[in-house]
Amino acid sequence: MKSGNIQAVLLDWAGTTVDYGSRAPTQVFVEIFRQRGVEITVDEARGPMGRAKHEHIAMVAALPRVTELWRQKHGAAPNAMDVKAMYEDFLPMQKEILAHGSSVIPGIPQAIDELRRQGIRIGSTTGYTRALMEIVIPIAAAEGYSPDVTVCSDEVSSGRPAPWMNTRAAELLGAFTFSQIVVVDDTPVGIEAAKNGGMIAVAVSLTGNSLGLSEAEVRQLPGSELQQRLLKISVDFREAGADYVIQSVAELPALLGRM
Fold first, then answer.
1. Which member of 12, 19, 185, 186 is catalytic?
2. Where are the domains of the chain?
3. What is the pLDDT of residue 211?
4. Taking the model in full, what pTM does it have?
5. Largest alpha-carbon pair distance within the chain?
6. Do the beta carbons of residue 50 and residue 160 sit within 8 Å?
7. Assigned fold of 3-22+104-258
8. CB of 207 within 8 A of CB of 15?
9. Residue 240 CB: number of other CB atoms within 10 A?
10. How many helices (H) and strands (E) are present in the chain, helices listed first?
11. Residue 55 and residue 219 in contact, taking contact as beta carbons nearer than 8 Å
12. How many angstroms separate the CA atoms of 87 and 243, rounded?
């Protein structure tokens, strides 16, 4: 399939187009548990990344180690009210973090410009709510990235791995041949959502949640170690159903040209 046959590209936000390393949400997940006397690891916080944030919190709370720590601290396993309270704390804390952690990943504006020159429509989806995206979207626009539409997790009946954010974005873009729509995401659940919608799934390995490093940390990592980690991430994404794996969205125009 040549890029001229692609109707639309749907891009995730954190870790795919903004927030190199998808670090902003991770900080908040760790903090809301810490405030309740439960120390979770960064890996535990990252595990459900890509899902709607209320569901994300519930999944972390349900991890056996986290549940046991919670029981030791509070006398019982975390329940729905605990998850609701953490989510209510999450939103204002995340807003504050996003105001300083939503920079566009290098190469994204140029890649999007190239795709638009080819007549490809650009949409986006996110596990963030619309209220959170009202902070992110203007920051990204000021740095040169502005998709034609954005669909948020609170605007559909359920988030990833359901395909509804992708299909809603496709509807808004007027792109209805799902096999000619490319979904780009940095999480396995995002790849699953793409496949559930019958779309082409492209995974991002370097800039996103799976590697989880800032641009500065990537530069400090020995080259051989970085390549080993990226290779494992690529294998994991392939096993999750990704049709293609790229290091960054900056590589997307070249990839579409090879399809």
1. 12
2. 3-22+104-258, 24-98
3. 96
4. 0.91
5. 59
6. yes
7. Rossmann fold (3.40.50)
8. yes
9. 16
10. 12, 6
11. no
12. 34
Q: Beta partners for 151?
A: 125
Amino acid in the structure at residue 22: S
Q: Which of 2, 43, 53, 73 is catalytic?
A: 53
Q: Residues 123-145: pLDDT tens digits?
A: 999 999 999 999 999 999 999 99
Indicate the helix (H) or strand (E) that contains 1. none
Look at domain 24-98 and name its CATH class. Answer: mainly alpha
Helices (H), 143-248: 164-173, 188-196, 215-220, 223-240
Active site residue 82: no
Please spell the DSSP secondary structure of 88-99, one letter per residue: HHHHHHHHHHHT
DSSP designation for 182:
E
Do 3-22+104-258 and 24-98 agree at the fold level?
no
Q: Active site includes 154?
A: no
Output the CA torsion 165→169→170→173 (10° steps): 180
